[in-house]
Write a structure and sequence with these properties.
CATH architecture of the largest domain: Alpha-beta prism
Number of domains: 2
Radius of gyration: 22 Å
Largest sheet: 4 strands, mixed
Helix content: 25-40%
Distance between the termini: 24 Å
CATH superfamily of the largest domain: Enolpyruvate transferase domain
Strand order of the largest sheet: 22-23-1-24
Bound molecules: ligand EPZ
Length: about 425
């Protein structure tokens, strides 16, 4: 079983280039099946989630041509519009975001059949708001044998008010509405940068979407969508993860290919606790030379502090001076890394959706296990900051959302390797001494 082995206490220094945004890529890849034309998509992160979604699309007949690791040409022309367009459980079990194909296939073919996503590591994650949107557009939704079956004679634009600010529901309803008859308004829409990127991609295909990035998105249905060429925005969360790694190891890192505006909530908090953050047009330079201070965090929908940065921020605060409080307001089970971190000497007490963090001078390396994608990345940061050796199991979670994570960290001086045996761990320990 592959794992990371890390020797900590090396400040990260140098430059890192951020890849394309995973959570924009997943919606954009799904949207590409909505045209018979060709979509050439660049700056696609080469991670497990995008590769699994491409497999799901191939399975229903989409034509996928991989131009290179980060560029793909997609056409939905061959998708069997008459047969069962079924995304089966194999793909949904691996990545929930396969469910974006419901909105895309319903929007284009007026039918879709996708396995119901189960819960996942960070919470129950219902899709009632997705279904509410599809039904408002005129689709009939049936749940049978673990499948969602969505069908519509026609889709008519509607005024939809989301009860919860949901990224997934906003994206899925946008996909189902772009070729519906007439106008659709999505109120209380999510405003994340990836929502804007997916709307921009759809507009480049001939859709008519206005207001993405605000809480009211207005869509005017069009008859058909054409092919396009598009480059995905940089990944706000990968960038934020490297910002935290820089400060947790008291390093100095120039993080390139970012949109600083997307990082504002993260930068503001790092500056508040005493780190240095310098903004350039397409880069941020982050450093910390001394122990940082405490602060309080509440995760919120964009532009608030992102829930996907909560575990990584917790590591930084667990090493800061004083007591910090993190309130996780988006998901109900996103503190599972706390038990792992305790093995490294962290002092964190979780009560409901709040973590009380008592800063400690330092961590000591230990054997830990990644409980989910972002918590796994946070444990890597903890290992890089810790005294001694850390081994992290279940790194498959991390590979879902980070391309060449260990390679990028090594290039910054991090002593980290991906290994798959005890023997390789010993070899690493001998090598780094
Ligand atoms: C997306 O998940 C991201 N995943 C998550 O990133 C991210 O944490 C989340 O948005 C919030 O930003 C992808 O984009 C693939 P939501 P999503 O719908 O769409 C509730 C990562 O690490 N809700 O915005 O599933 C839900 O339970 C992943 O990259 C409903 O109640 O998140 C949650 O409490 C982890 N009913 C809240 O809304 C619904 O129908 C926000 O969820 C939908 C959601």
């Amino acid at each position: 079983m592959e794992q990371y082995v890390i020797k900590g206490k090396t400040p990260l220094r140098g430059e890192v280039v951020i890849g394309g945004a995973k959570n924009a890529a997943l919606g954009i890849l799904a949207a590409a099946v909505m045209t018979d034309g060709h979509c050439k998509i660049e700056n696609m992160p080469n991670v497990r989630d995008t590769n699994v979604l491409l497999q799901a699309m191939e399975a229903i007949g989409a034509n996928i041509r991989r131009i290179d690791d980060n560029t793909v040409d997609i056409s939905g022309k061959e998708i069997d519009a008459l047969g069962n367009i079924t995304i089966d459980n194999e793909f949904i079990r691996k990545i929930r975001a396969s469910y974006y194909l419901i909105g895309a296939l319903l929007g284009k073919y007026k039918k879709a059949q996708v396995a119901l996503p189960g819960g996942c590591d960070i919470g129950s994650r219902p899709i009632d708001q997705h279904i509410k949107g599809f039904e408002a557009l005129g689709a009939t939704i049936r749940i049978e044998h673990g499948m969602i079956i969505a069908e519509a004679d026609e889709l008519i634009g509607s005024h939809i008010y989301l009860d919860v600010v949901s990224v997934g529901a906003t994206i899925n309803i946008m996909l189902a509405a772009v070729m519906a008859e007439g106008r659709t308004i999505i109120e209380n829409a999510a405003k994340e940068p990836h929502i804007v990127d997916i709307a921009n991609f759809l507009n480049s295909m001939g859709a008519n979407i206005k207001g993405a990035g605000t809480d009211v998105i207005r869509i005017k249905g069009v008859k058909e969508l054409h092919g396009t060429e598009y480059s995905i925005i940089p990944d706000q969360i990968e960038a934020g993860t490297f910002m935290m790694a820089a400060v947790a190891t008291r390093g100095d890192v120039l993080i390139k290919n970012v949109i600083p505006k997307h990082l504002e909530a993260i930068s503001a908090k790092l500056i508040e606790i005493g780190a240095t953050v310098e903004e350039f047009d397409e880069a941020v330079r982050v450093s910390a030379t001394h122990r940082l201070k405490q602060t309080n965090i509440k995760t919120l929908p964009y532009p608030g502090f992102p829930t996907d940065m909560q575990p990584q921020m917790a590591i930084t605060l667990a090493l800061s001076e004083g007591t910090s409080i993190i309130t996780e307001s988006i998901f109900e089970n996103r503190f599972k890394y706390v038990d792992e971190l305790a093995r490294m000497g962290a002092k964190i007490k979780v009560e409901g959706n709040t973590a009380v963090i008592e800063g400690v001078e330092g961590f000591t390396g230990a054997k830990v296990s990644a409980p989910d994608l972002r918590a796994g990345a946070a444990l890597v940061i903890a290992g890089l900051a810790a005294e001694g050796f850390t081994a992290i199991e279940k790194i498959g979670y991390i590979q879902r959302g980070y391309e060449n994570f260990e390679g990028k960290l090594r290039a910054l001086g991090g002593q980290i390797e991906k290994v798959s045996s005890e023997k390789e761990i010993q070899k690493f320990k001998l090598k780094v001494g």
